[in-house]
Write a sequence for this structure.
């Protein structure tokens, strides 16, 4: 889904820090009416809470929904995570959509956390 890039500020969660990142890739999809254009994706990750703050776990697939990737007339399919709060078993995430809208979405915390898989040394060097 493209090169991993920044996203939200990270927050302490247990003995790690937790946040959301984005990536992008030039592809054609039904959401871009079959046109090749940038599509942004977002995912979750954790990092260690001590230097050198290495990535410890990462989602194995982007967070996606038909609503987030709904067709629009804009030249990019942007989903850019901006900030979030965790309240109980919910994550409230602010995101930029198609460089023209701001959305607040609600995610199930346990479902998001279940997508995070440990990063091995071999994967880090790849």
């Amino acid at each position: 889904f493209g090169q991993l890039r920044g996203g939200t500020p990270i927050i302490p969660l247990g003995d790690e820090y937790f946040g959301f990142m984005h990536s992008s890739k030039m592809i054609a999809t039904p959401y871009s009416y079959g046109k090749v254009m940038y599509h942004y994706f977002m995912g979750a990750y954790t990092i260690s809470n001590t230097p050198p703050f290495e990535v410890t776990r990462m989602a194995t697939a982007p967070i996606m929904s038909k609503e987030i990737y709904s067709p629009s007339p804009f030249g990019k399919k942007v989903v850019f995570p901006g900030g979030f709060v965790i309240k109980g078993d919910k994550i409230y995430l602010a995101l930029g959509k198609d460089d023209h809208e701001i959305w607040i979405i609600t995610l199930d915390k346990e479902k998001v956390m279940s997508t995070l898989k440990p990063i091995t040394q071999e994967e880090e060097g790849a």
